[in-house]
Write a structure and sequence with these properties.
Shape: elongated
Strand content: under 5%
């Protein structure tokens, strides 16, 4: 699963991107430089095989949909 291969900072940056924070805001929030934010985002996108913020949102929604489906199957069986 691609999500489990993301490093902690990559997950933190992606979560803040999904929340709608700017790179400057993420930088201040995490106490890192803006270029470092860009680096973490690039690494995360490469690991996930995506290229845009829209694709990140779609990946995230699919992740939750898959988890929800697995939960429903488990509750039924």
């Amino acid at each position: 699963d691609a999500a489990t291969h993301l490093r902690a900072r990559e997950k933190e940056v992606c979560a803040r991107i999904l929340y709608g924070m700017s790179f400057a805001g993420i930088s201040v929030d995490l106490g890192i430089g803006e270029e470092t934010v860009v680096t973490y985002r690039k690494r995360a996108y490469d690991r996930l095989g995506i290229a845009t913020q829209r694709e990140l949102l779609i990946w995230y929604l699919n992740l939750w949909d898959s988890a929800d489906e697995a939960h429903r199957r488990g509750a039924v069986h």
